[in-house]
Here is the input.
Amino acid sequence: MKKASLLISILILLLFLSGCWDYKEINDVSLTRAITIDWEEETKEYIVCIQLINLKGMGKGVELNPQIIEGRGKTIVDALKNIIAITAKSSYWGHLTMIIIGQDIANKGLDDLLDWIARSPEVQLTINILLSTEKTAKEILTRGNQIKMVVMTEYGMIKAFRYISKMPNITANKVINHVQRKDLYAVIPTIKIVEMDGESFTEIAGSAYFKNGKLAGVLSSIDTMKFIFIINEIEGGILTIPTGERNSYVTLDIFRSSTKTKIDFPEDDIQITVNIKPIVNISEIDGFEDYTNKKGRKVLKEMADSYLEKEIEGFIEEVQKSPGIDIFNFGNKIKKTHPRVWKKINKDWEEIFKELKVVVNSDIKIKSSRHISKPIGVDTE
Amino acid sequence: MFVLTNSLDENIAFFKSTFSGDETFLTREFQSQNGSRFCLLYMDGMADLSIIANTIIMPILQMEKHTVINDMNILSTQIVSSGELKKSKEPMTLIDSIIRGDAVLLTEGVAEALIISCKGFKTRSIQEPEIEKTIRGPREGFTESLITNLSLIRRKLETKDLKFKYKTLGTKSRTKACICYIEGRADEKILEEVNKRIDSIEIDGLFGVKFIHDLTDDSPKSIFEMTGETEKPDVLAAKLLEGRIGILLDGTPTAMTFPFIFIENFQTGEDYYTNYYSASIRRITRILGFIVATSFPAIYLALVTYHKEALPPPFILSILSARQGVPFLSVVELLLLFFSFEILTEAGSRTPGYIGQSLGIVGALILGTAAVEARIVSAPMIIVVGISSVSSLMLPSIRSQIVILRLFYIIGAAVFGIYGVFLSMTVTLIHLFSLKSYGVLYMSTINSLYSKDLKDTYFRGPKWFIKRKRSGGEK
Here is the structure.
């Protein structure tokens, strides 16, 4: 009896420990799929746009009818409350897939936005924050293809760009974490509009890096892939290696890749070694050279390795020169592996980074050549 | 208290007064060739007239003139040609025999009577039971006649160890019950306990084994039942072989078995007549069906009302479009649909077959299609209720328990979301594991992970495997 009453009281106690949730019918909330946030310097106001999913018709003829509603306010939540006044339904953020921010708010600083995201019980911290490279973030929603945006956002665009490794996988919780710390820099994807046959589509354009929560610069789509190589987040994609012949390339399909960063201290100096180990398939060979036999593969591997090393080393040098910001988070690596060294150098890290010696080693493994071995070509001789 | 006398007329008068007002009580007086008077007492409709004519009246009428009837010995040993008869002086025994359909023979000058077995009432022929239909196994089922049923079991288990023990239950109905078991297999202690419980039954009449179940159950307040029921002799015989004890009752085609454990709800006789791979798959389907039938509606309700973030976006869009314009709360919608389904099943089980078909049309068209078209309920809800209800029909022996559990889980989901579902499931599990059937844990072997215990629970292992493991494990 005593045991039973103890058990019952534990079970009842659990009721109050589980946090607050509420019985809410699905059609009593408005489903929000995307949100854009802009900052207007003149009025000192936030302009928030949300994309709702409304339904047209009843019964079998229900159609998706995305709707964009704009609200203004002194703070983000203030602007959102003004939106509720229009929709007359409370917004539901559980299925939000992306937050698109404008350049102005990126220049002003992300802290207000991140505070709202982290504080909200509904917004999932695994969503992506994207920076619009257009004038405002709102344009992405209003000019882009509406229906496509609704269906595509999560399942199409983001997954596709992750697959070809042209988008850093940095979710809201990572951004929040990185912005709060001095030794970490946040890098988020950028989004732009492309015109095609008179229709507008949205596309991931590259990435943007932040220093102390403020926009510090952008990377192109190609540089983004090199960046992803360094931070070891390659999920796929292709490498086009220029061969000795004129205008011909060998295309390698990345199957898997791993990157290990090593830190050495030769003669009181710091040297970073980035070891890249991609496993690839040969997916296209231009020209006549057969790279599938043992000798050819060796030649191709050497070519690809030196190409990759040169490209990535060049990219790191560029970053060291022009913004001089440690977007690769090498500093954090040193902090983790050699905390004593980091204590000594952390104050001058920005200066040290600019002069840092970085070596890139590539070790490509060619797994297969797909269906055929010898390249197809017309014999002209 | 009346005692039989030498006077035939006095004796007849006693029985006539005992059965006064009962017009089915018949007396037949006749005289042998030497002038002795006889009287036959029996119940119309209970005794077989041709047996009476051929084995009693005819031999007496034809007996030789010099035969002198001083006592019943000569009659019983030399004249009456019935297979079963006994002598008695007790008026109560005689009355009982008459009621049971036997004939009582009285004669002038003897203060004793002869009970001659000539029961001749009509019983149903052996048919295949409706709810335990089988494709490959034996088709015969129990009838309302206890003797017939016992012979069916005896024919399955031709061993001297098979024991039948009679009990008479009910102060007014005087129903014959029979406890059957296999000596050496059935546990002595359980047998003792069964005898004790059966003897303690106090009731005026009982017409089905559920009466016994209600009066002897281990946990009478639990929604789960600690006894099994079957209408098939082969199933009962198999359970007896496993050491279980069966009770049969005269007048009902259902036998009761115990100790009963939870997993037996998922086993059918058919399992053992088909290939063990397909039997195992079907049994797992039944177990999954139980989970779906009890908790699927509650989990769905919790997801759409409390935890929308757990649903994938395309799914939430289709639910959203289906719920467009539906006036009721999801929980009201769900309960309404289940209530109408229960109405349909209840009406279906009470209507004859030819009306049943139109019932199906009403159910499918009016409740299904029309309700969705009219936006009274949403289509996903119909799917949820449909799957859950059909799953519950798969398990007829615990269907009523499933309905109660389902309602319990739905209420849990409506009040506390997914937490409520798991809370109510926990309560159910704690309750299930605390139950005992005649000293045996109701959930025994379910929580075991040894192949020895699992050979015939979630799976139906091949016979050679079951046999080998059993002989190894037996004490």
User: Anything to note?
Assistant: The longest strand of chain B covers residues 162-169. Residues 276-305 of chain B form the longest helix (30 residues).
